[in-house]
């Protein structure tokens, strides 16, 4: 197992967790499931502050943006299998974990990317990566979504990599926490 | 020219490019037709090019990268003034548009 980022970012056993699973077979997971699922999670958590709240729009949008970026990555890079989204709100902070499987090479490349995008100020790294991306058309642009989350939204991220028993696949958990404006009451 | 789907519409009027709706396309290739539209306006010889984003409610990071790429392209045209018009009430704009000014300090950012 390999972990990146601080343990306090990770979703805990004591959290009151809502779960969504996207199954490959019947759903034929596609791009539109990213937005659909992210919008649902954003609405699910924002509605708790009430639509009349001045924070409602901001919370719904920020959670929607965060979850959409994480599911987009899961859909883009995954090996066939379930994508799980688990989310909770604790002390005014939205917490989410997105789990999926990737092949071994993808996992190794992603670990390299994580080291690059966490090595310095996210705002500076974002600008540098955008510049590199524009200068080289073959550059994939990977990591820009994660950097906007850290730089523009103040999200903190952590990752857990677990190889499958036969070593051919790696289970990836991406954890994120996002401070939202107001504490949440039912 | 106009690009329209069920979720969004992008079109140009003179040297202003309007964006409306929600754009969450899958990456640079999917955004390429929109970049082409923008580049055509940039190549038209106008002294000011305006991106009007006020009605663009949601944009994913690949779309933000599209705006960033276009901003970098305009650096190569110092005779063209790039104006970016946004809305403070649209969360992604209040958070991410300032990055365009970091890429190109002479961009005029009008976020009402």
From TrEMBL, chain A:
The keyword Zinc-finger does not apply. The keyword ATP-binding applies. Keywords: ATP-binding, Nucleotide-binding. InterPro entries: HATPase_C_sf (IPR036890), Slr1658-like (IPR058084). One of its GO terms (molecular function) is ATP binding. Gene3D superfamilies: Histidine kinase-like ATPase, C-terminal domain. NCBIfam families: slr1658_superfam (NF047703). This is ATP-binding protein.
UniProtKB/TrEMBL annotation, chain B:
Residues 22-112 form the STAS domain. PROSITE patterns: STAS. This is STAS domain-containing protein. SUPFAM superfamilies: SpoIIaa-like. It comes from the Bacteria.
